[in-house]
Sequence to fold (248 residues):
Amino acid sequence: MGKYRVIFEDPEQPEQPAMVLVPSDNWLEEAKAGLLPPISVYWALQDDEQQAIAEGRHDTFKHDPEKHAAQWTAPRIGPLTEEEAIEYLIMKDIPRHIWSVEYNRPMFKIVKTADVPSDRQFRNAWRLAA
Amino acid sequence: MSTIKVDNLQTTGGAGLYPARAWSTFVGTGTVSISDSGNVSSITDIGGGNYGINFSSALGSSNYCATGDAQSNDGYDGRGRHEPKGTYSTSQVQIWTCAIRNIQSAQDSPRVMTTVTL
Fold:
């Protein structure tokens, strides 16, 4: 089990409880082995998909084959530490508006796994402490 | 270890084969953790019985098929229920789990199993 979790809130969905990003150990191993492409490869794909959603054509959406293949063909970025991998994962798996915009309080926090409550009672009332 | 790279898989008779593009088994209770997975970079614990599965490599199309099952957490049923919900993006599928005896409300599951094919 990875050492870290990321707790975040989505300012566009204020009624939603705090969410917890749980990294995959298999993916962390790939990150440490230097097998990941530049993060820009994923952002290009996300941008294309968001464009399709905005234009109402997501039901038939397919990625551009060349951009899609870049996930495997782009030069690898090299080995990452676990901390660097978590930063990469935030930029990949947490919506961009959560971590790229400055709000009047932090919208995400990297915490040790042991610090996440294991008692999930009242799970839908979890909030990220200021 | 060797890697085989192909664009199409077929039986010797010519029928198409469609392997999973992603799969995961995770614990959705206590401290949520991924037991094992393929092409999954992370799980987003969205709330009680609500989870997002984030793919390591984005899928080529949004018209994929996500199926799965969930073990019940209430001590009454042998099985729970697992349903995709809302988001079907090429980088994440969201699912929710519940007990068969109460399909109206989401409930954490101690074992959530998902397979994605395309």
Summary: DSSP finds five helices and three strands in chain A.
